[in-house]
């Protein structure tokens, strides 16, 4: 056959080398143009997993749900709170440290998970600074000592006197080993020269349930998670760990007023895995700060005894590093360790 224009014969005609080179060049150009679009894929691209390293009902959980609800509205995707309690908030924090750095997993970082527990636990598997992208601070708040209304000691000094009369047999509950409230108990023991028995729970919620039921007489808790129980009368507030009395609870004396020099604040922020893109960190920081500034949120934080913070990601990162460095010697001096 000579090839008189039959379609199959034309298809088999060799293509000149120059035409092939030009075609590949065009295809390469198309590919290069499409690469930035893939690299800059829209975020968020699905539900955001918000890990809380404590059980439901405590301050960390309350803050995460308050922030998560507003983020859900502002970002237009579901924000799913997931409680992963255990080992002084290190279990849930490790889950996030090992998660993909795509902005779809965040954690409610706090003084326990990123300042105290990394020095308290011997086999910690994450670095509280290097393994996270710290995004934004949410609030700072004091702790409060509360007691079941039927407990025999209804003041800080009465509690100390009871502990002196029964060395090692007077309990206090907290949200867990490594929490700031655990360290308040340690500091009280040292300052008052008494031996106290620490009962750690897997979160403030379960601990408060047992205090209300009378299983444990006393608890140290962050003020936001104890606030409603104090107002409702299910527990009595004996002392607060702030410098001054809290405006939301003006009748509760400070530890200093009650005769023990203890000042302590808990803090709560939002962090993501290290390597999270800077653009996502910036967006989350902006949205969290805007959410906390909303009048309804600010009012709720005030009612809970908290003080909001309007910080950049860089400020929060520096703060976490400072807190970790500051608490390490305190933990060592206390002699407290956890396997």
Radius of gyration: 27 Å
Distance between the amino and carboxyl termini: 86 Å
Number of helical regions: 12
Number-wise, the strands total 10
- Helix percent reads 40-55%
Superfamily (CATH H level) name of the largest domain: Bordetella uptake gene, domain 1
Biggest sheet, in brief? Answer: 8 strands, mixed
Q: What multimeric state do the chains show?
A: single chain
Order of helices and strands: HHEHEHEHEHEHEHEHEEHHEH
Strand content: 15-25%
CATH architectural grouping of the largest domain: 3-Layer(aba) Sandwich
Mean pLDDT: 88
Number of domains: 2
The low-confidence runs, each spanning 5 or more residues with pLDDT under 50, are 1-16, 18-38
CATH hierarchy, class of the largest domain: Alpha Beta
Per the CATH scheme, the topology name of the largest domain is D-Maltodextrin-Binding Protein, domain 2
Structural class: alpha/beta
